[in-house]
Amino acid sequence: MPTKPTExxxxxxxxxxxxxxxxxxxxxxxxxxxxxxxxxxxxxxxPTQAVFVIGGAxxxxxxxxxxxxxxxxxxxLVLRTLxxxxxxxxxxxxxxxxxxxVR
Length: 103
Known about the structure:
Blueprint: H1 7-42, H2 47-96
């Protein structure tokens, strides 16, 4: 039976996710805004309409990036928990193994 992640594991995983998703979302929004503003401005689109188009595209890009970070950090938490469980099982197996005499 796998051991449960500790509260510290949850906190650190959430903290890393929060920081990476926030910074990544801001950078993605800035890049989409700059590229979209340049492209739509060059195409002669009204700035009022461009704001809504760029805002929607930034929202979608930030959401996708947030999902990728979520998957990355949850996978990391699960693997850490499984590795901890496997390590404990190996230690139990070594401690309970019969000691053989060496000639």
